[in-house]
Design goal:
With 448 residues, the protein is an all-alpha fold. Helix content is 78%, strand content 0%. It is globular, with a radius of gyration of 22 Å. The N terminus and C terminus are likely disordered.
């Protein structure tokens, strides 16, 4: 009897990710593996740079470096976004990866010559920031060029899993390199990974040539058209703004506040790494099947609401528990919830955007994320000046939950998420044709 019951329950308990049935070779495999390798390289290099700054430049050096990188990202992402819609995306990725190889080589040589300094690290960081401002939007748009529409959902799931692995393994590799050979060995490892990412980028080729004609608009008009499209597509505009507001509360709770909370509990520094690993493992477990199963049983909209509610409560629990192991468990739950919110609607959003606007709208999304990342430390620092860390976590939890409720009133969101993948293809332009008028002058008024 028990055996029969277990056999009946097995299909629902077993994680059967769709991406296992996806052929992970050729262009799509090279694209996703290249993105993961790039993430490995960037996290290793970023960790080594922060380690050197902490040892040789102190808080002032760290502040200058972090503020400059945030400012450059906010400027470069929207400024360079038309490139992905005007030039060959594969070629842009190759160029960007070559620039990252040059940056890693320069850091390696300077580290072995003991010539590192704050200006040098800022200059190399600026080079990497501008390269990523070209690579990231182009890579987001290229995904639809290297995978069939029927397999896009599986590809996005594999992509999230690869990103989780990169976030999980990059800091670990960097920590080992720093322990064995200080920053010099870490930059050698970064260079090797950057070269591997460049090789993979060269193997990424679209299934077919792009169907849209190359843009003949001026750079200013092209940039304005992308920003106008992001603003006039009401569902995407309010969805993005609400998500950015949620991140203002989420990022400090999982970032700068965590070391303070662990120190308050008397935990060793090792728990900081364990909590970060738990978050990444939670995301990975989610994309391996839990997120799909939640969305299949609850529907996309309801799954999103449940995930946001559980995530917000888990953030509040971090400030209420009294053991480091409980904090780590909360971060694992937060990671699973993140996998649901990140995967929910990503396939639809990718299909809904016209091909000649993909890079620009992806860049606008990334810009909002960087803006939230820049504002969140200011909010957290202000709160810490008034309340203890436990209360600050409660405030971050409440802000996250209240911001998440705003998604319930985003115009057309329920209708959009209820559409099938076929119906979602080109949905933005069909629903908001005024948002994608090519060649419109930048001064035109928004009808939103």
């Amino acid at each position: 009897m028990h055996r029969t019951l277990l056999l009946r329950l097995a299909p629902s308990l077993r994680l059967r990710p769709r991406w296992r049935r996806m052929r992970m070779h050729g262009p799509v495999g090279a694209l996703l593996l290249g993105e993961m390798t790039t993430l490995f390289a960037s996290t290793v290099g970023h960790g080594a740079a922060l380690w050197w700054l902490a040892r040789h430049a102190g808080v002032q050096g760290l502040t200058v470096y972090s503020a400059l990188m945030a400012a450059l990202a906010l400027i470069s992402l929207p400024l360079l976004s038309p490139l992905g819609d005007r030039l060959c995306r594969r070629r842009l990725i190759v160029w960007g990866q070559a620039l990252l190889v040059g940056e890693a080589a320069a850091l390696m040589v300077l580290a072995w010559m003991e010539a590192l300094s704050v200006p040098v690290l800022c200059a190399c960081g600026a080079m990497a920031t501008w390269a990523n401002a070209v690579i990231q939007p182009a890579r987001s748009g290229l995904l639809l060029d290297v995978v069939a529409t029927s397999r896009l959902g599986a590809a996005i799931r594999v992509r999230r899993g690869a990103q989780a692995l990169g976030t999980l393994g990059g800091p670990a590799l960097g920590g080992v390199a720093l322990a064995l050979g200080d920053v010099g060995l870490a930059f050698v490892l970064q260079l090797a990974l950057a070269i591997a990412a460049l090789v993979l980028a060269r193997k990424t080729r679209p299934l077919a040539p792009p169907t849209s004609a190359r843009s003949t608009e001026s750079w200013r008009a092209s940039l304005a058209a992308g920003l106008r499209a992001k603003w006039r597509v009401r569902v995407d505009r309010w969805w993005s703004l609400t998500g950015a507001l949620m991140m203002v509360f989420f990022l400090p709770a999982t970032g700068m506040l965590l070391p303070l909370r662990l120190q308050k509990l008397g935990a060793s520094p090792a728990w900081l790494g364990l909590c970060g690993s738990a978050l990444s493992l939670g995301v990975l477990v989610g994309v391996l099947g839990i997120a799909d199963r939640c969305m299949a049983r609850l529907g996309r909209m309801r799954a999103m609401v449940v995930a946001i509610a559980v995530c917000g409560l888990s953030l509040g629990a971090v400030g209420g528990v009294d053991r480091p192991a409980a904090v780590m468990l909360c971060f694992g739950v937060i990671g699973v919830c993140l996998s649901v919110t990140q995967l929910m609607g990503q396939t639809h959003r990718s299909l809904a955007v016209p091909e000649d606007f993909r890079a620009r709208m992806a860049s606008a999304q990334l810009t909002l994320s960087h803006l939230a990342a820049a504002l969140s430390p200011l909010l957290a620092g202000l709160c810490l000046g008034w309340w203890p860390i436990e209360w600050v976590y409660g405030l971050m939890s409440a802000g996250f939950l209240l911001s998440g409720l705003a998604l319930l009133v985003v115009p057309d969101l329920r209708v959009f998420l209820a559409a099938s993948p076929v119906e979602a293809t080109g949905w933005y332009e069909r629903r908001y044709p005024e948002a994608f008028r090519r060649g419109e002058r930048p001064g035109a008024e928004s009808r939103a």
